[in-house]
Design goal:
By secondary structure, this protein is an all-alpha fold. The protein is built from 3 helices and no strands.
C-alpha cells in the first residue's frame, strides 16, 4: 500500500488541487452580485463611449461634406471665371 502512495507526485497533486480551488472561487466571484454591478457599470460606460464616438464621427462627416461642397463650388466658379476671361482675351486678340 505504501508503494502506491510513493507513486503519487505530491507537487503535481497540490498544483492540481490549488487550480481546482482557485477555479471554483473564481467562478463564485464572477457570478456574485457585486461582479454583476461591475459588469453593468462597465457596459454602461462602453455604451456612453460608443454614443460619443458616433457623435464625433457624424460631426466629422458633416464637416467633410461641407468642405467637399465648398471645393466643388470653388472649382465651378474658377471654371466660369476662366471661360469668361478666356473669351474676353480671345475677343481682344481678334480686334
Amino acid at each position: 500500500m505504501l508503494k502506491c502512495l510513493e507513486c503519487i507526485d505530491l507537487k503535481k497533486t497540490g498544483i492540481f488541487s490549488a487550480g481546482v480551488l482557485f477555479g471554483t472561487v473564481g467562478i463564485k466571484l464572477l457570478a456574485s452580485k457585486d461582479a454583476k454591478k461591475v459588469y453593468t457599470n462597465c457596459t454602461a460606460a462602453a455604451l456612453r463611449a460608443k454614443e460619443c464616438v458616433l457623435k464625433v464621427a457624424a460631426n466629422v462627416q458633416e464637416n467633410a461634406e461641407d468642405i467637399y461642397a465648398e471645393a466643388q463650388q470653388m472649382n465651378e466658379d474658377r471654371t466660369k471665371a476662366d471661360s469668361v476671361c478666356g473669351e474676353e482675351s480671345f475677343k481682344e486678340v481678334e480686334e
